[in-house]
Predict the 3D structure of the following.
Amino acid sequence: MAIPALGDQIELLVRARYPVLYVVSWEEARVEQHLQAIAARRNKQLHVWSITEGIREASTVEGQAPGKKRAVTDPIEALEVVIQHKEAAIYLFNDLNAFLRPEIACNRPIIRKVREVARALADSYKTLVICSPLMEMAPELQKDVTVVDFSLPTPAQIDSLLDRIIKDVAQHASIRVDLHTKGREALVRAAGGLTLQEAENVFAKTLVNDGTLNGEDVSTVFAEKQQIIRKSGLLEYYEASDALDDVGGLDQLKEWLKRRAMAFTDEAQKFGLPAPKGVLLVGVQGCGKSLCAKAVSREWNMPLLRFDMGRMFASLVGSSEQNIRRAIAVAESIAPAILWIDEIDKAFAGSSGSAGADGGTTARVMSTFLTWLSEKSKPVFVLATANDISHLPPELLRKGRLDEIFFVDLPNQEERRRIFEIHIAKRKRDAGVIDTEHLAAAAPGFSGAEIEQAVISALYDAFYLGRDLTSDDILRNITQTVPLSRTMSERIEGLRGWADGRARLASTRTVEAEPTRSGGRKLEIG
């Protein structure tokens, strides 16, 4: 037997005569419309209750006159109406969860009444549906109430909404709609994770803003998602400013990422491709791992969310685990998205021995995160970076949780030349007048971050001397810098040894001659 779609799951439970359902959703209107459709198919009435309006009749059995609104705002009285009503019906109670919190003493009679409703409806053709965006329920009700997650709008539903909006604005000559197939798909995909009301609001916002609606309005949709992130307080939204072409080197990693850029499209799903799970970038500090995360966001046209593990840990017992579940839920709610976890090795350092240090909180948080990595079905691409592989839990490195592990090494000479060009051009200078070939040869062992700082320091010198930047300015700063590859050579060699056979190389490996040491003893032999 085929498993029914989530939308049909509610109807299946109604037909199976489950007495009390708890639908978790922000979209009361969509839930009510869905229940109206179920009631019509099952030849039942639909009644809707809220604390402000009482009970109103949302739909009736064909041939019956619509009923009147009943001013039954007290929840116990309203639940008694459900028990006494004789006809087959569905009752939608909005925000009844506020009266199901066990810590509030005055809620005890209402909790008891819901249990009585569950018993009374078990042998009837009536169903009580509680709808709320929050999951709040007394432990006593766990065996009487069935919880259902009502999914956010599908791409097809957002596409239908887009059709309706286009039809509504067709009569306005000042509004221009320019949506070709790929632009429309990009806009619909970007709106994934929004409620229908949020999607309608953001589409209207783009029309009011510049009088047009096209595939380039994806950025406006991301701004709407940024509001969702800001309200959560657990994730940070990053604006994408750099493209993959602005990252010097890492050719194999960039090729891998570009090949997966189309894997989130409808065409890829029809082809049978699953959405990519994620990638772990391990390597030397300052070599572009974090820059790559920001560049992927722009390349894939997806929002970038920074996952700060420090925010997850709270003083109250159990709060840290709840925080990470909330953060994951927020990321999934605006999917497709990229979840960037910077320096994941520091976040999970000491997780194996956390029982004695923090009561096992770090281990439990890590377990929650790793379980989600294995089982996640929403298109949230995880991009994690790490500098110290000794702190990484072995469970994170196994296949299935992430698609690939890349080792980001120090740039070779050609990559250094490209990095010099990028940073010189970023400072509004013509890289053609700077001898980047000579600079790259003079900076073996320099990371991308060290090259950038050499260029910036040279700009300071040139500005102080009242002239423009020259190759000699940069070369002088290179000779005055001791790169990390020398001060931490043993650690970097250890990283390379670990990566050999365990990770893919982010760059094509080239063998470079060791730099000639100046100032050494000169011997004349023979």
In short: The chain has a mean pLDDT of 83. The two ends are 90 Å apart (CA to CA). The chain has 23 helices and 15 strands.
